[in-house]
Specification:
Blueprint: E1 11-14, E2 20-22, E3 30-35, H1 42-53, H2 55-60, E4 63-69, H3 73-83, E5 88-91, H4 96-100, E6 104-109, E7 112-117, E8 120-124, E9 130-134, H5 144-149
Parallel strand pairs: 3-4, 4-5
Antiparallel strand pairs: 1-2, 3-8, 6-7, 8-9
Length: 152
């Protein structure tokens, strides 16, 4: 589990293009590493589109956005294309990153119990250290960028 003050791992995973994503590629920027349950579901689409709509402002403020789910590279490519997402999505098929960050676990919905990703956002500073975590109870998909800007 990664906590505030911890150094984020250098190797983040493989993106939708099959390219390895390293934290050092974003040196000098803050990284919004957001974990979400599944491509093309209502909440995940709302969150991704809110980040898309505010992407230029996020970049102006020195942030880079990277999404992570356990969906495949192909699923990510379709999601990016369908919603014109300007940022990369990591395909964490082997669940390495979700487990490292402590966002994989037992969930309950409609009386059903299953394993899944907890919607969580980690703000990583320019030195690669986690400076803020938005937990599943805090993340609001429709105003997520606003939550990132308002650091209270």
């Amino acid at each position: 589990m990664i906590n505030i003050g911890d150094k984020a791992p250098e190797k983040l995973g493989i993106n939708e293009k099959g390219e390895e994503v390293l934290l050092s590629q974003f040196q000098g920027k803050k990284v919004v590493l957001y974990f979400y349950p599944k491509d093309n579901t209502p909440g995940c689409t709302a969150q991704a589109c809110n980040l898309r709509d505010n992407y230029s402002q996020l970049q102006q403020e020195g942030y880079e956005v990277i999404g992570v789910s356990i969906d495949s590279e192909k699923s990510h490519r379709n999601f990016i294309e369908k919603h014109q997402l300007p940022f990369s999505l990591i395909a964490d098929n082997e669940k390495k990153l979700v487990e490292t960050f402590g966002v994989w676990g037992e969930k309950k919905q409609y009386g059903r119990t299953y394993m899944g990703t907890f919607r969580t956002t980690f703000i990583i500073n320019e030195e690669g250290v986690v400076e803020r975590i938005l937990t599943p109870k805090e993340v609001k998909t429709k105003i997520h960028a606003e939550q990132i800007f308002n650091q209270d």
